[in-house]
Design brief:
The complex is a heterodimer of chains A (about 525) and B (about 250).
Chain A lengths: L1 H12 L1 H38 L3 E5 L5 E2 L1 H12 L3 E18 L2 E12 L4 H4 L9 H5 L22 H25 L4 H10 L33 E5 L4 E5 L5 E5 L6 E7 L7 E12 L4 H4 L2 E5 H8 L10 E2 L1 E6 L5 H11 L7 E5 H44 L1 H9 L4 H32 L1 H12 L20 H28 L2 H6 L2
Chain B lengths: L5 H9 L3 E14 L2 E14 L3 E6 L5 H8 L7 E6 L2 E2 L5 H11 E4 L11 H12 L2 H6 L1 H14 L15 H13 L5 E5 L7 H18 L2 E6 L2 H5 L3 E6 L2 E5 L1 H5 L1
Parallel strand pairs in B: 3-8, 3-9, 6-7, 7-8
Antiparallel strand pairs in B: 1-2, 1-4, 4-5, 9-10
The chains are: A alpha+beta (about 525), B alpha/beta (about 250).
The structure holds adenosine-5'-diphosphate and magnesium ion.
Chain lengths: ~525, ~250
């Protein structure tokens, strides 16, 4: 009884001890904030990375790909059919994207993916990252009338409406140009009239070099861009836009092209003696996953079209080839076991296949985030440990200050253990108060982290999460109760540990020496 | 109000029962490997119901002896018996209980706990002696007894005051109330007036004498003041690490 009474009295009268646990409070609060932000960040990244990549990816390195994906799939199902809940075959090919922008050709290197719209969403998140709401539920490579990115005010008008308006404008412009040319140079008016409308993509006026194989150009005279489109293509949003800040420091997106525009793709065909295929596509939507690495490198079109363009259909048997098979596994399936089983079935010394799980592909990134979290945790726990030494020093001082009282207590019959428990419970109480305050502070901070971030932005003018780098609209946080428990337990443990030595000293103190202490 | 049975008063008159006996006590301190003998064969008895005085010059070893009697320290040689039970080498828990329950101690410098009010200080021995649960169950009773003790020493009006808000005499009264809280068989007083002015010291002495006369409390009073020793029933003089016993008048002469 006296232990708790004295312990509470000491807590109330020794504010210096409270000061010594502020560092515990800060340490605990920081640990909670850092852990929940890191957890949120890493969960968001896992979610996105995992969503973007399928569970298992089987890539063929041969330029012609692997023939007969259905046959492969049958083999795969024999190996691990129980775990597979979805599969999709696709063609991945490096390509160059060419966009005509104000008369200039903008080129970008992209990963060109021919995908099967029916199955691709089964293995990875794709549709949900498209801008048009209808495409989000069912991907279509037909250009839609309008209604892209409905909740984005800045997004320019796109779709058929835009396409018609643009074609009309360009035609008017061409006619006007022809009229001026005719006035200036009546002799060439006939040629101007014949060549003017024959330009296929009015925005793409640059003729490709001679080596490009023009294998699938629609006959120029029959193609009316106002009502017809080229094969549809979905561009990663950052391949065809740039995000920057204006003078007022607002984030602005500039689009080089938008749904309704035509672009040119150049990519190798599948023959052993590879030639470049130069094909026009019409942008039908844009893809925004939030992972800038993906958004700036991917372009998608229909699998069968890409197979045709690349010559991946055997003319004799009509068997089609793909470069990639993606698998979606049942929840809880052992990814690595399935991968290893597939590797045994398709040994690398026979097949030029690369079989990976999504974790393998994103391994370095995930490992980096994990390492970062671990290091931060260690550092912050060191801070709490430093606070522990502060408590140790303060407690020693308090024990010295209380020497005579310890003598008195022993003279009144208090046992060594009783005296010790005064200081141990004092440490326990300080630990609880300190880490409890830290817990509350940390949780409140996490709860309001986005408001706080905005406030910091206002004060410092520095953006905490730069949206030109991260596509997060707000800072993601996840609070794991388990983390809270071990942070609290760690902090209280350190506080108790720091009070053990002073408490032992108090318990061992010789009563007579304590009583005679000046 | 009387806390002690009439039997005690009778025992005083019969001059019989020995409460505490020290036999051939030796104690020396060690300072830098040099042995400083303080007690050299002390034989000594405290009789129930009497005020026994222990006089001696400052530094003669009175406090040392008292600490041994209170089992706060252990003698190098010799034995201490409390009501026939050897107490100096008793187990730790027995000695804690002995200090808590069987004896009461008051000091020259009061030794009140500064964080606690007067009444909490008086309650301290009960809190120490009982488990938290036990204390909680009997807290009303304990509080009533603490108030009675404070009333006995004339300090009830100061019950809520901290030691820092009290005078020396008041603090010593609170210390006496605390020592009486567990109804001890013996009160050990180490120069209870040593830090007080003469008048206040006399008041404290009067209080102790009253406690002895009215309630039959056995007191061992340590002092360097001959005049105080004179008023005791028995007197021992500490000299050269040994005790001379006799009637006060003889010793002081
Ligand atoms: N811890 C110690 N170490 C060495 N000498 C001590 C110690 N405590 C007391 N002494 C010595 O023992 C002697 C007796 O002290 P004490 O019992 O306090 O005397 P008194 O109470 O009669 O004034 C003194 O000479 C003192 O210096
Ligand atoms: Mg002394």
């Amino acid at each position: 009884m006296y232990r708790w009474l004295l312990c509470f009295r000491y807590l109330r009268t020794r504010y210096i001890a409270l000061a010594s646990i502020i560092s515990v409070t800060l340490g605990v609060a920081t640990l909670i904030v850092v852990n929940s932000v890191m957890a949120g960040f890493s969960a968001e990244m896992h979610e996105r990375l995992h969503g973007l990549a399928s569970d298992i990816l089987i890539e063929c390195h041969a330029s012609g790909g692997m023939p007969d994906p259905e046959g492969h799939l049958e083999e795969i199902m024999k190996v691990c059919g129980d775990d597979v809940v979805g599969s999709s075959a696709s063609v991945h090919v490096p390509a160059m994207l060419g966009i005509d922008f104000n008369g200039q050709l903008i080129t970008r290197h992209v990963n060109f993916v021919g995908l099967d719209p029916k199955t691709y969403d089964d293995v990875s998140h794709f549709g949900r990252y498209l801008l048009h709401p209808e495409n989000q539920s069912q991907v279509s490579f037909q250009l839609r009338e309008d209604g892209f990115a409905p909740n984005r005010e800045q997004f320019p008008s796109s779709g058929w409406g835009y396409r018609r308006a643009r074609v009309a404008y360009e035609r008017a412009l061409a006619e006007e140009q022809a009229r001026i040319d005719a006035l200036r140079n009546p002799a060439s008016s006939i040629t101007a009239e014949t060549t003017g409308p024959s330009e296929t993509g009015p925005s793409l006026t640059i003729s490709p070099p001679q080596i490009f194989e023009q294998n699938n150009e629609v006959a120029a005279s029959e193609f009316d861009p106002a009502v017809e489109q080229f094969p549809g293509i979905i561009l990663g949003i950052s391949t065809s836009s740039s995000r920057m800040r204006d003078e007022d420091n607002n984030v602005r997106d500039h689009y080089y092209c938008r749904p309704g525009d035509d672009v040119r793709m150049m990519f190798p065909n599948a023959s052993d003696n590879a030639k470049v295929v130069n094909q026009k596509f019409t942008v039908v939507d844009m893809y925004e996953s939030g992972m800038s690495e993906y958004d700036s490198t991917f372009a998608f079109c229909r699998l069968d079209q890409l197979q045709e363009f690349r010559g991946m259909i055997d003319p004799a048997s009509q068997v089609r080839s793909v470069t990639t098979i993606q698998l979606k596994l049942a929840a809880g399936a052992d990814l690595n076991a399935v991968r290893d089983a597939l590797r045994r079935r398709f040994p690398p010394n026979v097949y030029a296949y690369n079989i990976q799980t999504w974790r393998d592909m994103q391994g370095p990134l995930l490992a980096a985030v994990k390492l970062e979290t671990t290091i931060l945790n260690i550092l912050l726990f060191l801070i709490i440990a430093v606070a522990g030494f502060g408590i140790l020093a303060t407690f020693f001082m308090i024990v010295v200050e209380k020497t005579r009282d310890i003598g008195t207590l022993k003279a009144l019959g208090a046992s060594g253990g009783g005296v010790m428990s005064i200081f141990l419970s004092y440490g326990l109480l300080l630990g609880f108060v300190g880490s409890g305050a830290g817990l509350i502070g940390g949780l409140v901070f996490v709860d309001h982290i986005n408001e706080i971030a905005t406030l910091i932005e206002k004060i410092t003018g520095q953006e905490v999460f730069d949206p030109t780098v991260y596509y997060f609209t707000e800072i993601p946080t996840i609070i794991h109760p388990f983390t809270l428990v071990w942070v609290m337990a760690g902090a209280v443990g350190i506080a108790i540990f720091a009070s053990v030595l002073p408490a032992l000293r108090a318990a061992r103190m010789h009563p007579v020496k304590a009583l005679r202490f000046e | 109000m009387s806390f002690y049975p009439l039997l005690n008063q009778m025992a005083k008159n019969m001059n019989s029962e020995t409460v505490l006996r020290a036999q051939d006590i030796y104690k020396s301190y060690h300072k830098d490997r040099i042995e400083v003998p303080v007690l050299r064969g002390v034989d000594f008895e405290v009789t129930a119901g009497l005020v026994t005085a222990l006089v001696g010059r400052s530094g003669s070893g009175k406090s040392t002896l008292m600490h041994l009697l209170a089992t706060l320290d252990q003698p190098d040689r010799g034995e201490i018996h409390f009501q026939g039970e050897r107490i100096d080498d008793a187990p730790r828990s027995r000695r804690d209980r002995y200090r808590n329950h069987d004896i009461g101690i008051i000091f020259q410098f009061y030794h009140l706990l500064p964080e606690l009010s007067a009444i909490e200080n008086v309650l301290a021995p009960t809190m120490i002696g009982k488990s938290a649960w036990n204390f909680f169950r009997h807290r009303k009773e304990a509080k009533r007894r603490a108030e009675a003790m404070l009333d006995r020493v004339g300090l009830l009006h100061r019950a809520a005051h901290k030691p820092a808000e009290m005078s020396g005499g008041e603090m010593q009264r609170a210390a006496i109330a605390r020592a009486l809280m567990t109804d001890p068989t013996l009160l050990l007083a180490d120069e209870p007036t040593g830090n007080l002015d003469t008048e206040t010291g006399l008041e404290i002495l009067k209080l102790l004498t009253e406690l002895n006369q009215d309630d039959g409390l056995t007191i061992l009073m340590i002092t360097h003041d001959n005049s105080i020793a004179e008023s005791a029933d028995r007197c021992h003089r500490m000299q050269d690490g040994q005790l001379q016993q006799g009637m006060p008048e003889l010793l002081i002469a």
